[in-house]
Design brief:
mainly beta, Methylamine Dehydrogenase, Chain H, Rossmann fold, eight-stranded mixed beta sheet, six-stranded mixed beta sheet
Amino acid sequence: MKRIAPFGTWPSPISANLAASAAPSLDQPQFDGKDIYWLESRPDDNGRNVIVRSGPDDTARDVLPAPYSARSRVHEYGGACYVVVAASVYFVNQSDQRIYCIETNQTDASPLALTPSDAGYRFADLVFDHRRNRLICVCEKHDDTRLEPENFIAAVRLDTTQPVAADPVERLIEGADFYAYPRLNGEGNKLSWLCWDHPSMPWYGCQLWLASIDDEGTVSNAVSAAGGSEESIFQPTWSQAGELYFVSDRNQWWNLYRYDSNPNADHANACRATALCPIEAEFATPLWTLGMSTYGITSDGQIIAAYTRDGLWQLGRLTPNPPGKGDSPSRPETFTAQAAASKETWVSDQAGFSEIETPYTQISAVTAQGHLVCFIGAAADRGNELVCLDSRTGKLRIVRSIPIAEAAGTAWSIPQALTFATGARESCHAFYYPPTHAEFAGPSDTAPPLIVICHGGPTGATGTALNLKLQYWTSRGFAVIDVNYRGSTGYGRTYRERLDRTWGIADVEDVVAAARHAANLGLAAADKMVIRGSSAGGFTVLAALTFHDVFAAGASYYGIGDLETLARDTHKFEARYLDRLVGPYPERSDVYRQRSPIHHAEQLSCPVIFFQGLEDKVVPPNQARAMVEALQSRSIPVELITFANEGHGFRRAENTASALQQELQFYRDVLNLPPEVTG
């Protein structure tokens, strides 16, 4: 029999320190012969990102000595910050953004710098050019004489025998505002890449390019292979057979394609893209960090791919037909994004597609070598695990998992998918987590307090991986509803575009509708609903509190209060993001003011707590300070918690734990909850 106690007062086995230190922390797996490498964040080590190596005996050891930390700051969000070749690890160091090399087969080896200091370079998406003994990567050069940094694809000459003497960075491809995924074929004579220009973001539209590259490394004969202003391309990848694959949303869903040159065309740029598996599912995710990977190609040509339907990720196996075999032209009403007559879309026989059964509902960072495939998997009752799949047998092997020993015996709250009506007679999606405890239950005649969560992005999505920072709330007797508001990914391009020119309206309508839906179903107490979110989710929080009277309080983590300030002050990658979400600036400055909570603070009448990193370059601290001052001037209960050593997103365990503790106490005070149960 469970003990009955008021919701929100249960003693939890998940402490703030545990929730902070056990955050998801595995990413970017890579093969190097029989070894597997990955990136592992260490919140309890000042947020340091360590490269870890595991050999055939599954013994894991750190590659990077302290204080080195592998993290790129290209686009501020970075990504693909290291590459391994024959036990040599080339990585971007977080503190100075230089590329270093460390030999992992040498005892007590020290990293050697390969790029100059104080040159303003940042690097990401590293690829090793075996044919020319160099790195090819995305480079971002910061120069105080320019309004924006320059982005280009660079080659970095390698000389690990002596310290850096001259600048080894050579520009290979330039002219576009942004670049991603420079990839060489197996022979090293072809190079593919993505690029896009302001005001686009890569999930709106980008182009896939293909070029020749000679023995000296000179790039020539570049042709546009796919993409455009309204077609998003993701993860171009070469197979061992020399075929180029990619993901495109030209049919409104991010599906897998193969690039096929058209031998019957009368000009060099003609090509066709063959749809390998056209289904209403997403084989991609928005390119917030460079080098993201949802599929890998085995040595026998199988594609092992992660895809999402209705917010849940699965793993599938696809064996493509050879080019031209079993292909047929697509119907124009199905594939609408092909503007150029020289670019055709064909559909391949789908008989080779099948689902691979796994225990995971969140899958990312898929990579392949030979017949082995590595990925990061998680589910509602298990944290992130580095998993190795044998594509021949289907056998799964866990290479690394993050132990959560202190929470052993915890009854995890399992998400329940909800779809409900929202504005414009449309539907919205969310996951509801009921309050759950192994020893406590709430009174049968009362509903629990509710926390509505707004994910960041806003072009992002919430997932179903075990998240102790969410279970921190449910194990104390709070219900949680995590909303995939309109504009979220995972539900097709049409759903994603619902946020065009409606940010601050559609997303706010959706979180309000989610709270009311939960209350109407008896899943939440209507007078005890709060809302929390970070970054873009923080903006949704502040807008919901300002323009609606549904929530008793809110928590904004490095959130946006003034859209005009964001449009003027943010970094290059997002400098024109708001053109599509809100409108062109400054031409539509009136809309920016209409939707900015800072200009309507007189309508916000409930308590708010703000958390802000003082080194934040994405959403500067002045955003939080302006909102706090506006509320203080009206004597609204407000708190501002700052962290001097944090940027956009908290990485240090002690700061995350402190924020959780203060947020919990804030809710208990605002909602007038009884003290935590003891004994």
